[in-house]
Structure formats: structure tokens, C-alpha cells
Specification:
Length: 204
């Protein structure tokens, strides 16, 4: 089993009409044994941007603190919030610095830029960025998520429709993955606010 799959997990981000959503499951496992149902995989970087970190739990926690430090330092130096695209490049360069002994995490970035245009991207272990206009997925449920998102996603979804679409995609995908699930959290980012909702899923 790959170290990326050791703790399990699934993350998906979707773009809508002047809004963006990111969702993750809550399970922390040791291979097939569930340890916790309340493990945080999505971290808020700024008021309008989030970082999702699926992968090895220890590296998830290490990277979340490292990215928090770097975004705070950026804000102090530049006297402004970091833009999602800049955040993506910062995350990418951080991973690439450790390309010879890499972190076992494949980050997903989601946010709204200064013009409230949605921005989403994902990357691999060494920071190769995959920009997207529709959705990005990461984690052990990636194959199922791709199928569900291809079926359900439509352009220019309003916030409530986007929430419904991303929720159904995640819930149906983790039902087919024994390493993910056990609850989910969804963040919908709009120009006015961030809507956070917790979902109940199958507990078996």
C-alpha cells in the first residue's frame, strides 16, 4: 500500500458562478482500521481561499502549519491577503523544495480572487500544478470522484446548487471507497461569506 493511501481520504473542489466549493471526508484510518471520524483535511488560508490536504496524516499536519506560517509571513511583508493563484504557486514551490524526500500529500487549492472569480487547482507530490475550470479531485477516491463529477457538474452553478452537486459527488464516491468517508465537510466560498456544512455519511 502506498503511503498516500495509508490513512485514506478524499477531497474535491468545484467552481461555480462567482463561487467555489471544496469538500473532504473526515475519516482518519490506519489502512483499513478507522481511528477517528473528525480529522481535519481542509485548512483556511485566507478569508476566500482554502487548502485541502489528502495524504499521510503526519505530513498533512506538518504542511498545514508550514502553509499557515508562509501565508502569515506573506501578509506581513506585502500588507495584503495572498491571492489563490499566488497561494498555489507558493504551495507548489514548497513541495518542489522537498522533491528528493517529498511530502506524501497532494494539495487542492480553492478560492476566489480579488475580482471574485473562482480559482481551483490540484497538484502532485512534487508540486506540478493542474489548473482547472470545472473541478479537481485528490485522494484515494479519485477515480470514483472523477466519474461522479463528470456526471453532475454543470457550468455557472449558484452557491446552493454547487453545494448540492459537490455533496452528492463526494458522498457517492466515498461509498465506493473503504478508505474514505465516515462524515464529510463542505465549504462554499462566496464573495460575501463562507458557508460551512457538515454531512452525515454511511458509518460502515
Amino acid at each position: 500500500m502506498s503511503a498516500l493511501e495509508y490513512n485514506g481520504g478524499a477531497i474535491v473542489a468545484m467552481a461555480g458562478k462567482n463561487c467555489v466549493a471544496i469538500a473532504a471526508d473526515k475519516r482518519l484510518g490506519v489502512q483499513l482500521m478507522t481511528v477517528s471520524m473528525d480529522f481535519q483535511k481542509i485548512f483556511q488560508a485566507t478569508d476566500k481561499s482554502f487548502i485541502g490536504l489528502p495524504g499521510l496524516a503526519t505530513d498533512v499536519q506538518t504542511l498545514s502549519e508550514l502553509f499557515r506560517f508562509k501565508t502569515n509571513m506573506y501578509k506581513l511583508r506585502e500588507e495584503r491577503e495572498i491571492e489563490p493563484r499566488t497561494l498555489a504557486h507558493m504551495v507548489s514551490s514548497t513541495l518542489y523544495e522537498r522533491r528528493f524526500s517529498y511530502y506524501f500529500a497532494e494539495p487542492v487549492i480553492a478560492g476566489l480572487d480579488k475580482n471574485n472569480q473562482p480559482f481551483i487547482c490540484s497538484m502532485d507530490l512534487i508540486g506540478c500544478i493542474n489548473f482547472a475550470k470545472d473541478f479537481v479531485v485528490s485522494g484515494t477516491s479519485s477515480r470514483s470522484l472523477y466519474g461522479m463529477c463528470e456526471s453532475l457538474w454543470e457550468p455557472d452553478l449558484e452557491p446552493e446548487d454547487l453545494f448540492e452537486t459537490i455533496s452528492q459527488s463526494l458522498l457517492n464516491a466515498v461509498d465506493r471507497d473503504c478508505l474514505a468517508g465516515w462524515g464529510a465537510v463542505v465549504h462554499v466560498i462566496t464573495p460575501e461569506r463562507v458557508i460551512t456544512r457538515h454531512l452525515k455519511t454511511r458509518m460502515d
